[in-house]
Amino acid sequence: MGRAHEVRAASMAKTAAAKTKVYSRYGKEIYMAAKSGVPDPSMNVSLKRVIEKAKAAQVPADVIKRNIEKAKGGAAEAYLDNRYEGFGPSGSTIIIDTLSDNSNRCLAEIRSCFNKSRCNLANSGSVSFNYENLGILSYEGTEDEALDILMMAEVDVNDIESEEGNVTIYVDPKDLYNAKDALEASKGEIKFDVLEIQMLPNDTVTLEGEDLAQFQRLLALLDDCDDVQHVFHNVENIQ
Question: Do the beta carbons of residue 188 and residue 145 sit within 8 Å?
């Protein structure tokens, strides 16, 4: 499937601005998980899982701690998650997941991004039906070893591939942490390059010229929106 390189590239911050965006995204998720239960990962499974994902995305310990302390302090923020879907040029599609304390403002900002880039915001389900929701794990290892471990743990593997000494495993989202726990029970603590749930397109397109510039403008505008948590698209030649 050739997804491993793209998944790893999309998950690693390449600039200071990108890192700030990643830290903000996980900060919100950590805060909400801590606020919705006991602000202690040893007693709050949801918080523990978000922290594990944050560590895989190289979020610093102080960012994690700061947002847990924020939840302990009784901060009043409350975030709601929403998903938006849309169409770009020449068969391109996009899915945007947001986490916002003001859904009306968030929708207005997302709509503005589409309008400014001459793309079209779509109805719910009109794009996501052609994407597959998968849990993804990527780490330094081999296919055969990973398959043996996961088979013994009765985790169904949707797909698996290796590239340059890294193995990338695709599983049902509900099995993401079952797979992680099984691998670490066998191998000890693992440094995961990717540990998250993503929407992966069943079909991809390649854009050129004005179409490529138009879609890149949409992505740049969305990247400037603080409420945007995840962006998934089907354009093969944009990381």
Answer: no
Give the residue with greater pLDDT, 163 vs 10. Answer: 163
What is the distance between the alpha carbons of residues 217 and 38, in angstroms, rounded to a whole number?
41
Cβ atoms of 126 and 85 closer than 8 Å: yes
Q: How far apart are the C-alpha atoms of 149 and 144, rounded to whole Å?
A: 9
Which residues make Cβ contacts (< 8 Å) with residue 155, sequence separation at least 6?
Answer: 171, 175, 178, 179, 182
Please tell me the distance from the alpha carbon of residue 136 to that of residue 6, in angstroms, as a whole number.
12
Average of per-residue pLDDT across 49-54: 93
Query: Rounded distance, CA 51 to CA 110, Å?
Result: 28
β-partners of residue 134 are 198
State pTM to two decimals.
0.83
- Determine phi and psi for 216, rounding to 5 degrees: -65, -35
Give the separation between CA 29 and CA 63, rounded to whole angstroms.
12
What is the C-alpha to C-alpha distance for residues 186 and 115, in angstroms, rounded to an integer? 50
Burial of 194 per CB tally in 10 Å (0-12, 13-18, 19+): buried
Domains in the chain (CATH in brackets) are 4-72 (1.10.10.200), 83-128+207-233 (3.30.70.980), 130-201 (3.30.70.980)
Q: What sign does the CA torsion over 30, 191, 3, 131 have?
A: negative
